[in-house]
Amino acid sequence: MGERVFELPEIGFSARLEAAMPRGVSALLWFLRKKPLGAAGALVIGGMLLMALAAGMVAPYDPLETDFGAMLGPPGRAHWLGTDAFGRDVLSRIMHGARTALLVGFASSFLGATLGALIGVASGYLGGRVDLYTQRGMDIVISFPIIVLALTVVAMLGSGTFNLILAITIPFIPRVSQVVRASALSIREMPYIEAARALGMGKARIILRHMFPNVMASYLVMLTAFLGQAILLEASLSFLGLGTAEPTPSWGLMLRGAAVEFAERAPWMAIFPGLTISAAVFAFNVLGDALRDILDPKLRMA
Amino acid sequence: MRRFILTRFLVMIPTLLGVALLVFLLLRVVPGDIVQLKYAGEGAFVPKETLDLERARLGLDKPLWRQFVDWMWGMVRFDFGLSMWTGRPIRTEIALRLQLSLQLAIMATVIASLLAIPLGTLAAVKQDTWVDHLVRIFSIAGLATPSFWLGILMILSLLILFGWIPPMTFTPVWVDPWANLSQLIWPALAVGYRYSAMATRMTRSAVLEVLREDYVRTARAKGLWEPLVIARHALRNALLPVTAVIGLEFAFLIGGLVVTEQVFNLNGIGMLFVEAISRRDYTMTQALVLLVGVTFIAVNFVLDLLYAILDPRVRHR
After folding, report:
1. So what's the ipTM on this one?
2. Which pTM value belongs to this model?
């Protein structure tokens, strides 16, 4: 808690970042020493990204290839993590599943955080009646538990990756906008905003060019905080059969149906995809925590 | 104080109306309605007249605003109407499931608090030691583990270790407490662990904050036994924000256990919700969403009151 970062007054994001972090390679080492858990998380995420990108080359089997001679096979030399009820290779499916998980995770938390931040900044800057109505609207959306809202949207629109992303994005928007609005309110009173206004800049320009860059810290923190949640949501919805549709490999989908049915005979079907989900979400959470500690100590409890 | 309660109460009404309107429209703007879905299963060509007749029977031929007003008028009189799919009264269908969901939510909340408060306090007292780090890893792991996967693992290990799986049918507590507990304790543990994470963090930071207060220093200075300082002076003052987090989580637990119920084959509100929405059962989905919304908003209201009563500064904000 004694770091200098925490005592800095409310100034722009880039200035704070510069004050907080050394540059270049030393920055990396600094992060590693200061936040070992966060660095470990970053490492796991890097590995998963690689796995997702190179799945086509690295995966030992085609994730869709069925082999009825090797159904429910235990982990061994041919299939490192065993096979599922259709004889598909579990490891290859996990690798290809990383694509779905990361695509949905990144896309929906990026969209949710961006839209939420824009709404939050605009609402906080404009104030008055606009702010009041926007906040009431957000209150309404926030009274749905995340999973209930996501489920409703996906059930209405139908399954599929794009709809899944949309369904996960929507519940994130009001949650981000609340946090970002709070920082926007404090920035609004800053002299440089006053100066921009005095120069006769339009509202849109002030919001986009002067307010938005300065709530970057909360924006990034919320973005990483929701990444893990988005991956978990994708897995949950797919597990319910409402998310990613077979035969597309998805971690949640791998835990559905046969994995439960044959849990006693072939526990690897349930254990490995679940472990992968936990590892991914854990990594994103610790990285998010580390980022939050560095960028915005005030968001500690958000 | 009375004015504060009244205004806080009145603010709830537009929010609830908004929730109702949102779900009402969401269900109806998307192509493909319940009547089409109902007859889709029969495979054969269904004449348009039959569909229209069924729509009229369900009241779906009326203008939208009329349907909404009818629904709201029913709600005001606590008349939830009939399920569009099964034709049974929604109130009885929900009442059956609410027993299970409510009990599960209470048990999970109790487990979460029993984990979170001692662990969070411990982490705060031992700040930045390995104990603190361990608690942190334990609680982040809880957040990261899907509770449905934890559920699968639990059932699997029970099966392998004891050759026993939890009973699949729900028995109310007053009929057979043992059978009831042996079914619900597992999902409650899985969910309670997951939901303890947020509360643990909250407890830790609240206790940390309070430990810096003057009255804690005073208590220590007069030579009070350290555990008593923590329990009586620190924890009691730190508990308010923790209660808020736990209360909000409780509200979410009522309707938010969709996935866990699936794994443990529990016929609760979450399952009913998935069923209703996949059948486009408008009336049932609306009733359930409103139920969840009301619970959440009501818990929020109660928490606000609690804050106002315990902390007079809030009242004059």
Report:
1. 0.84
2. 0.85
